[in-house]
Write a structure and sequence with these properties.
single chain, about 130 residues, mainly alpha, 6 helices
Length: about 130
């Protein structure tokens, strides 16, 4: 995508971009602002005016997002990984509650590892370590 197209999209969707970025954490916003600053310095050294215009728009949108976040008390969104972990924990808690309601102890399964006796004789444990 050309810089002119990116610039036009950034300007056309400025309000939506600001509202989306406002859900990022302050740390993420600060890091992104720092990256834009470094990219601006590099674009200035290369005298790339199109990139400088685009980076200035991104910079202003990041600053606007920080202000919008502070003024409207916008909470951070959970990352996809943190959200998936929270969902798994919720499901596990519900399963534990159901088992307790039925009078059963929750099962805690431990991962099983084959013992020395269960390993095939043709592959000793030391030779397997050499593969890594």
């Amino acid at each position: 995508m050309s810089k002119a197209t990116q610039l036009q999209e950034a300007l056309d969707h400025a309000e939506a971009n600001v509202q989306h970025m406002a859900t990022w954490s302050q740390r993420q916003l600060a890091e992104r602002l720092e990256v834009v600053h470094i990219q601006s310095q590099l674009a200035e050294e290369k005298k790339d005016t199109a990139a400088l215009e685009l980076l200035e728009v991104w910079r202003s949108q990041l600053i606007a997002a920080r202000l919008y976040k502070a003024e409207h008390h916008v909470p951070d969104t959970l990352s996809d990984i943190k959200q998936a972990i929270a969902e798994i924990e919720t499901i596990q808690n519900h399963a534990d509650d159901r088992q307790e309601a039925l009078g059963e102890e929750p099962e805690v399964s431990e991962p099983s590892r084959p013992s020395q006796k269960q390993r095939p004789k043709s592959e000793p444990a030391e030779s397997q370590l050499g593969l890594f």
